[in-house]
Amino acid sequence: MNINSNYQKIILLGLGFFMLLMLMAVFHENGILNAYRFEQEQVKMKEENDALRRQNILLQKNIRALKSDPYAIEKIAREKLNLAKPGDQVYRIVTTQTKLPSNKKP
Known about the structure:
Layout: H1 3-27, H2 32-68, H3 70-79
Helix pairs in contact: 2-3
């Protein structure tokens, strides 16, 4: 056997092993693609958590206001429950749909 042939076999075997390692590093269940996907999912979840924290803070402020501020309670009663104080005059605006005359010529 030729010495060059042995070196070629060793080099091909080494390249094959390297390619196998690269494929496993990229496509394995713990590979680079999954790591990138998990990182993107983590960023999305952190953004959702931040949004939920802001919403919780806002809701806690509303709860405190409703527990201690009579004007906040009155505002909710008037706006959401359509309640009025005794002696208040309530006006309802009713909208109707009117048909526009058509431009048809007889």
